[in-house]
Amino acid sequence: MASARAPPPAPVKPARFSGLEALDAAVSLRLHALFLPVPRLLLKALEVAGDGRIWLPVPISLLLLSATPASSGEISPLLVGLVAGLVLDLILVGLVKVFVRRPRPAYNAADMYVAVAADHWSFPSGHSSRAFLVAAFLAGAGGLQHREALFLWAAATSASRVLLGRHYVLDVVAGACLGVFEAWLSSLFLTFLCSHSKFLVC
């Protein structure tokens, strides 16, 4: 269910950005209209698959379970890095959204769930950043087969944001780039922890 509270007014943008935003809005609307025949149920499924209300609690729960005496007692480095990346993503996306304050497309349907106030804003796409963070981090972790499927899922999730009318094209492109950057930072953080921590077996 969408929030009934209206977002605060967006800041006035410099004229040099207005032309780019207008082009982005026109292309995004064209894509949204062109792909209206795509089943909305499929697009909503991709939306749920990239939802932060799933991706943050589940890895945290698995991480906590892996550290209990009932389990092996070894903390999974993969989960540590993934949780660190997801928390970083939550912080960065929220900060950028509140700073930029780009309104979402006017044709965005009322079936969007707004979890926090920052979700009123469109730039960047949190679903895109989260999906590409997960795909890039897991693909770079090694030992995984069918890595292409991870990026296919991330790309499909990002595309669904435009087709659903949730975001503009530049929102998802920026989100994807941010997600890959976050995956790199998470990998660096995990490497540092592995070389300095006695609790991780990397």
Automatic annotation (TrEMBL):
What molecular function terms (GO) are annotated for this protein?
A: sphingosine-1-phosphate phosphatase activity
List, for all copies, the residue spans of the domain called Phosphatidic acid phosphatase type 2/haloperoxidase.
79-187
Which Pfam family would be a valid example here?
Answer: PAP2
Q: Where on the tree of life does the source sit, at the highest rank?
A: Eukaryota
Keyword tags: Membrane, Transmembrane, Transmembrane helix
Establish whether keyword Nucleotide-binding is in the entry.
no
Q: Which residues cross the membrane?
A: 78-100, 168-193
Protein name per its UniProtKB record: Phosphatidic acid phosphatase type 2/haloperoxidase domain-containing protein
* Native source organism of the sequence: Eragrostis curvula (weeping love grass)
